[in-house]
Amino acid sequence: MVEFQFTEEQEMLRKAAREFAEQVVAPLVPKMEETDETPEEIIKGMGERDLLAVTIPPEYGGLGLGHVARVIVLEEVARVSVATAMMLQVFHLGIDPILVFGTEEQKKKYLPALARGERLATVAVTEATGGSEPTACQTEARLEGDHYVLNGRKVFITDVHLADVQVVFTRTGEKEFTTFILEKGMEGFRPGRYEHKVGMKGCDTGELILDNCVVPKENMLGKPGDGLKVALAGISETGREGIAGCALGLLQACLESSTKFANERILYGRPIAKLQGIQWKIAEMAVNLEAARLLTYRAAAMRDKGQRCDVEMAQAKYFVTEAAARAAKDTCDIHGGYGVMNEYAAQRYLRDAQVLIPSAGTSEIMRIVIARAALK
Ligand SMILES: Cc1cc2nc3c(=O)[nH]c(=O)nc-3n(C[C@H](O)[C@H](O)[C@H](O)COP(=O)(O)OP(=O)(O)OC[C@H]3O[C@@H](n4cnc5c(N)ncnc54)[C@H](O)[C@@H]3O)c2cc1C
Prior knowledge:
- The protein is an alpha+beta fold.
- It folds into three domains: 8-115, Acyl-CoA dehydrogenase/oxidase, N-terminal domain (Butyryl-Coa Dehydrogenase, subunit A, domain 1), CATH 1.10.540; 121-225, Butyryl-CoA Dehydrogenase, subunit A, domain 2 (Beta Barrel), CATH 2.40.110; 229-375, Butyryl-CoA Dehydrogenase, subunit A, domain 3 (Up-down Bundle).
- It contains eleven helices and ten strands.
- It has a four-stranded mixed β-sheet with strand order 1-4-5-8.
- Helix 5 (82-101) runs antiparallel to helix 7.
- It is globular.
- Bound molecules: flavin-adenine dinucleotide.
- Flavin-adenine dinucleotide binds next to strand 1, strand 3 and helix 11.
């Protein structure tokens, strides 16, 4: 059965997320652009409105609304601030491996405080050896009695300075990888350098440094050797879904600002919206937005039904981020010289769109996943 309608509950969630984005986030965007810092009000607002708890089941204190609901929230938040949506999507991503692979004790220990927004989570896989090749991981976890000792350095980690709980991918043997739940305050655990990106200003990104970090055995997710399964399941489904959700909101923002400007800008005595060259760009954005929504919400609906959807998520992530990048370029072009002025959001859309492309896997890696499935 194919359904193309959101439920009443999902529409209410969309309204609540839009209110949060417009009332709390929008006034803070200029400050985020200027300082590249995350305002406390944003994190607090996400917690108060249960936006962090969307995918956590009610038995652990969450809303249990699932992945279609999650994409709705991300789309609405990204329409106003891709930086804020990116932070939110990575908080969900950090929760995901505990939900899927955690023991009952781990779920009871971590999920309720994460659902209440008292604690925040992230995932740390990427290292300087290359995000596309996670098995080049050099962060080592060595068993010493009843605990592991971790040494290494992760790079490009979203929310690294904010997250109290971090799911970290390590090497435990020549060809063996294992994932652990780490906590702020553990001996030898320290967020490092803050990275300044071209876009998504105000979204925290940086290094995680592990210097003889002592982690109890019971913080392991799954068994020794389950590391790749745990890390890749999260990134290839929840991570790519989240980036597609962010790109959807960006596409929507591009369409709205392009149509507004095209209707208001007068050239040759009439709005530039009457020019066919401008209409073609707008038509391209409108059709890509619809196709992007169908791809993303279908993949999220598969996720909610418990179906495998890594290829569908790769298709969504690839299509929506590339379409958003083209739409952002067209939005700038439609705005003429105003498109490169800080006073207009068009230039921010272009910078944010580029940051979405490598996040959670590059377009080349997405096409490899898609082609591998198509060639089977
Ligand atoms: C804003 C942002 C936030 C991020 N947040 C996180 C996070 O929270 N946690 C985390 O663990 N990581 C995070 N990452 C890391 C992200 O997952 C990696 O940047 C991404 O996987 C690419 O890795 P890389 O940057 O090392 O590029 P590389 O892997 O070095 O890739 C370099 C180039 O080689 C290409 N390439 C690689 N393999 C192939 C191939 N087989 N065929 C053709 N071309 C290929 C790539 O497409 C790319 O063009 C984040 C990145 C960004 C930009």
